[in-house]
Amino acid sequence: MSEQSSANQGQSVVTKILDFDLQRKHKLVEIYDDILQLADELQREKSIIQELTTQFGNFRSEIPNSKEILLEEECPIIIAGETSAGKSGFINLLIGSDIFPVSALACTSTIIKLHNSTKREIRVTDDKGKEKVIEFGPDNESSSIQKEVRKYVTIKGEFLNCKCVDMYFPVPMLKGNTVIVDTPGIGTTANPELNARLFEFLPRAVAFIYIIDSSRAGGLENDRLLAIFEELRSWRQRGKLIEFDASRTIFVCNKWDAVEEEEDEVLNYITETLREHWPNFHEKQLFKLSVKEEKKLAKQEKSSENYRKLLSGIKKMVPSSLEAKVVMNARYL
Ligand SMILES: Nc1nc2c(ncn2[C@@H]2O[C@H](COP(=O)(O)OP(=O)(O)O)[C@@H](O)[C@H]2O)c(=O)[nH]1
Ligand SMILES: [Mg+2]
Predict the structure, then answer these.
(1) For the Dynamin N-terminal domain, which residue ranges apply (predicted)?
(2) Which of 68, 81, 88, 184 could anchor a disulfide with 211, C-beta 3.0 to 4.6 Å?
């Protein structure tokens, strides 16, 4: 496969992240098991059990629950950003297959989840919860898959009442229950339901990658980003979303090939805007990329320094986010 080299790099980064996540989860499960065993051994020491229950609630029934959630919940890698910033193209680059529809005109209007599976199928759920399954054979080209997906996810598509699209394909880099989530342009009030759904995903995110269109006046309509931030803050105030740490987002300045002004000025503008609006923003969270150029390079089994930097940035940042997530999960231990 011509895109293999570049895709391999993306895949190895994602795989590393997920290995790390699984290891930590299993460690935590071991700790849970130890506690339950200890509680069994202390069965006769009624006063100790009573004391622990007063302190930690009904931990003997809660721990098995937590264990299950920990091992079975979906771990989303969320790709967000302005409409037409290049989110779908970025996912195609990452997975090394052009199955996500990319278009300048018909933007994605629904959430698409990509799952790793031995099957090759798309499941479309309409707004009444009815599901339609479209199966593909092993010989179907990515272009024909993309064409089919396009029907359900674009504003001008044939099926407007589609609520979500789940794609099941062999994507070995997505281990366990990890899914890649392609979100429509978010942060707008145009579709509050979609915004709400994004915020449902965020607390469980193993990565939050925000794609910026650098070619459009610096690419940041900061009110949208601000809307996300405000929403996060209100969730946190209500005691939700404690696992999500805004400082662990990755910002990708895409379409770097199409930046017409002075590149330094554009980068400074984006940096300043993020510094102003995103809490604890650090420049090391920001990466330049041209999905367009990168795809050309991938065809020659090459990759740019910018893309390699981005992949290593994701690799470095996500383990600490997972660590925080597991610590949060284990907070009553
Ligand atoms: N010049 C240029 N165009 C790009 C780049 N990445 C994406 N595009 C174009 O931008 C448009 C939107 O891309 P898409 O991935 O569908 O954006 P999405 O709406 O964020 O998912 C398409 O026409 C792409 O070909 C890039 O790096 N450079
Ligand atoms: Mg898209």
Answers:
(1) 77-254
(2) 81
pLDDT digits (tens, 9 = 90+) for 229-262: 777 677 667 765 445 666 668 999 999 999 988 8
Check pocket membership of 105 for ligand 1, CB cut-off 6 A. Answer: no
Average pLDDT, the chain: 78
How does DSSP assign 9-40, residue by residue? HHHHHHHHHHHHHHHHHHHHHHHHHHHHHHHH
pLDDT at 28 over 60: yes
Boundaries of domain holding 109: 74-322
* More confident of the two residues 198 and 139: 139
pLDDT band at 123 (very low <50, low <70, confident <90, very high): very high
**Which one of 82, 84, 99, 310 would you pick to mutate in the ligand 1 pocket, going by the greatest count of ligand atoms within 8 A of its CB?**
84
Task: Confirm whether 55 is domain-assigned.
Answer: no
Check pocket membership of 153 for ligand 1, CB cut-off 6 A.
no
Within a domain: 238: yes
* pLDDT band with cut points at 50, 70 and 90 for residue 194: low
Name the nearest CA neighbour of 135 among 149, 154, 120.
120
Q: Are 253 and 209 in contact (CB under 8 A)?
A: no
40 within domain boundaries: no
Atom of ligand 1 nearest to the CA of 291: 27
Residue 57 domain flag:
no
CA of 100 to the centre of ligand 1 (A): 12
| Distance between Cα 235 and ligand 1 center (Å) | 31
Of the two residues 178 and 156, the one the predictor is more confident about is 178
Helix residue ranges per DSSP H, 42-141: 46-56, 59-72, 87-95
Structure tokens at 98: 């052009």
Classify residue 30 as exposed, middle or buried by CB count within 10 Å of its CB (0-12, 13-18, 19+): exposed
* Number of C-beta neighbours around residue 242 at 10 A: 13
Ligand nearest to the CA of 85: 1
Q: Which residue is closest in CA terms to ligand 1's atom 28?
A: 255
Residue 284: CATH number of its domain: 3.40.50.300
Question: Ligand 1 within 6 A of 126 CB?
Answer: no
